[in-house]
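Cross-posting from the chemistry board since nobody answered there.

I work mostly on the small-molecule side, so proteins are not my area. We synthesized S-adenosylmethionine and want a rough idea of how it might sit in this target. Sequence and SMILES are below. Is it possible to get a predicted 3D structure of the two together?
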Amino acid sequence: MDRIRCACLASRWPEIRAWLTRGSYSRGRAEEGQDGEAGRRECILRWEGHSLPGRNRKAYSSSVEINEKTQKFIDERGAWTAMAIKLADGTYTRRPAVDYRLKRLVQCAEDLVKKPLKDCRVLDLACLEGHYAIEFALRGAEAVGIEARDVNLEKCEYAREMLTLDRVRFVKDDVRSLSRAKYGLFDIVICSGILYHLPAHDAVEFIRQLAETCSGVLLLDTYVSLYGRERSIVGRRELRGHFYFEHNNSDDTRTRSERLWASIDNVTSFWVTQASLLNLLSEAGFTSVLEVLTPPTPGFPKDRKTYAAVRGTPARIHSSDLTDAIGDIHVAEGESSLMDGSQRQKSVLFRFAKRVLPPSVKTIIKPALRAIRVLPPDQTPEFMRKK
Ligand SMILES: C[S@@+](CC[C@H](N)C(=O)[O-])C[C@H]1O[C@@H](n2cnc3c(N)ncnc32)[C@H](O)[C@@H]1O
């Protein structure tokens, strides 16, 4: 059984996952030229046509969806690892597969940007094989795709030529050198699958540059750290999250560059928690951040999120001076444990006592139980409390 199938099983059965993560995956590495845990998971998400990187030649040669020219390109330059792009003659760059993220990004952009796509500039960061930028260009937008790896860029260019698109250009660059001076302003910035490949100090500056280059909406698709068990200090800021291994220290440049979905050079990256991310986004100038839930992405892990961050103007509150004065609100780490009392699971003993004890006894013992935290704090509004 190959590793990818192991990974699929692992995503279903926690025991197998635990067993696997004691092995080579524990350091965030996966085989078949992919990056670590994230690559493995993205493999799983994208593994719909059984055409896995590195051994899809057979799949292609038996597939009618690949034309001869594309097959020749694949034989010489390697296969597309993820993005199945429909070319002008109806053939594909790889076996066609559903891309839920593409659908989500395009729908969000159409819904949230206030002008027609043909009047929009779209930036696709770390664009891999260029599908998202190409889709926006096909819809009339002026698109720019930035990607660091030559072999990925060659595939972007191939698809662009096969579609004779002149509204998209692909640039070889490191997303960490993004700036408005270099690329101008964009109505839509797509930052998918790259933030979690950066170390914390780069991520902080990168988010600042995202805000600098975005005049409308940032569509940010990323893994977030669920437990924030580690810290990274950047300037005077403390970020919570966890470190993630992209490469081994001993890996040479070539080995690093061959991991087509991984960071280009940094050995570790830092996955921030949602709270740290939200604070960075609002500090950078995004005035509201929405979590995108539909269109859905069936089968995606719960730590993979899509956010739409809007570059707006801070709203003044005219009807409440106190509310107006609060300024930026810091998002606290960890989920609030507060919830309505009706949601709490009550023990049999509790339910029995509640039923049989007279109200006068309950009034006496409740404050004591609250003091020792057996009961949650009283949330009854002031006006409803018995005088
Ligand atoms: C996991 S893939 C994500 C691709 C695509 N954006 C998506 O959402 O499916 C990460 C991509 O980022 C590229 N990449 C990694 N580090 C980069 C950097 N510092 N600058 C530009 N591209 C980078 C990789 O070559 C790869 O194409």
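Reply from a structural biologist on the board:
Welcome over. Reading the output above for you: Residues 42, 126-128, 147-149, 152, 174-176, 192-194, 197, 261, 263-264 surround S-adenosylmethionine (CB under 6 Å). The first helix runs from residue 3 to 12. Happy to explain the token format if needed.
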